[in-house]
User: What shape does this take?
Amino acid sequence: MDINSAEFIISNTDVKKCPQGQFPEYAFIGRSNVGKSSLINMLTGRNKLAMTSSTPGKTILINHFLINKNWYIVDLPGYGYAKRGHKGQDQIRKVIEDYILEREQMTNLFVLIDSRLEPQKIDIEFMEWLGENNIPFSIVFTKADKLKGGKTKNNINNYLRNLKKYWEELPPYFITSSESRMGKNEILDYIYNINTTLNSSII
Assistant: This one.
């Protein structure tokens, strides 16, 4: 699937203020500094669509981007930034949970995982929460170009083995690099196929 248009629509912290209508939404979430903004910019081919920051945990808003005039990419706040303090973390948690649990248009949640790291407890617990609430999600391993000598593949295989301790069936997963554009076509084709299925069910 080609992205011919991508435009910022709205930022807010209240799910009730998200765009009206029934366009499907594909939301992206992950721990702070996982490369979420860079991934969104890579997928859309727009270098400054989602604003990247050198300060982890800065994004606290739900950001909607209208793609090809008929579906949305949603940039959700990053979770688990310890320096926010408990009050700040609780505020972000409410924004995230309200969107995920209440937004009927959310079609799939892409959970971003830094492929360089060992499995993190906060990510595992977040995915378990998604499963308990029957939220459709996929995993996106980011920064796959950062390690050499096959270490990225080993890390990802180890991660998947760890997940199998908790899941009978693994969710779909993608391996990406914002710099080399690895995984771009796979994710966009995945979204295209879901949109096609949704359109067929409406007809």
